[in-house]
Amino acid sequence: MKHGKRPTRAQKIRIKSLGLNPDNWLVVKDCRECFQVVHKVSGKTRKIGGQA
């Protein structure tokens, strides 16, 4: 499993718009087609956009 990085300000706004708390999520992948974040504590991954 990849390690996530702290989100930038723009990514925090994007995470918040999804109804998530940006303080609890790390960004694993951020490309034009998809946005993938992982929860800091539970390790659950969410993939937003693109083909699931």
Percent strand equals: 25-35%
Helix count, per DSSP?
Answer: 1
Q: Tell me the number of structural domains.
A: 1
Q: What does the overall shape look like?
A: globular
What is the helix/strand order? Answer: HEEE
For the sheet with most strands, the description reads: 3 strands, antiparallel
Secondary structure elements and their pairing?
Blueprint: H1 9-17, E1 25-30, E2 35-39, E3 45-48
Antiparallel strand pairs: 1-2, 2-3
3D architecture notes:
The protein has one domain (9-48). Helices cover 17% and strands 29% of the residues. It has one helix spanning 9-17, and strands at residues 25-30, 35-39, 45-48. The chain is globular. The protein starts with 8 loop residues before the first helix and ends with a strand.
What's a concise summary of this model?
This protein is of the alpha+beta class.
Keywords:
52 residues, alpha+beta, 3-stranded antiparallel sheet, 17% helix
